[in-house]
Specification:
The protein is mainly beta. The chain is built from no helices and 10 strands. The strands form 2 sheets. A 6-stranded mixed sheet has the order 2-10-9-4-5-6, with no helix packed on it. Strand 4 and strand 5 form a beta hairpin. It starts with a strand and ends with a strand.
Length: 112
């Protein structure tokens, strides 16, 4: 199993980024996937998840600003992040839910 995140970077508050997670080594379309994040000095927290059906859930802190999606043909999951805030600064991780599979993380930094 391999999960690789792309798309992090430095952006000003109010800006946007799109994260991607490329998956391999398992049947992607049958698995629920999720995004988590970890800010310095804080525990890793849930951001969003998407079921194999496409049904999505979001943390209250990102609801209305972030959109999770998936392309099963490309074995890729996405996180569109709009209206970014400095408090969104963290390392963002891709996860195959209900397993121990995680990506290496991608840094998102939002400047004020």
């Amino acid at each position: 199993v391999q999960l690789v995140e792309f798309g992090g970077g430095l952006v000003q508050a109010g800006g946007f980024l799109r994260l991607s997670c490329a998956a391999s080594g398992f049947i992607f379309k049958f698995n629920a996937m999720g995004w988590y994040r970890q800010a310095p000095g804080k525990q890793r927290e849930f951001v969003a998840s998407i079921a194999s059906s496409g049904s999505a859930n979001y943390a209250d802190s990102v609801k209305g600003r972030f959109t999770i999606s998936r392309d099963n043909a490309r074995r890729t999951m996405y996180l569109q992040m709009n209206s970014l805030k400095p408090e969104d600064t963290a390392v963002y991780y891709c996860s195959r839910l209900n397993t121990s599979a995680w990506g290496q993380g991608t840094q998102v930094t939002v400047s004020s």
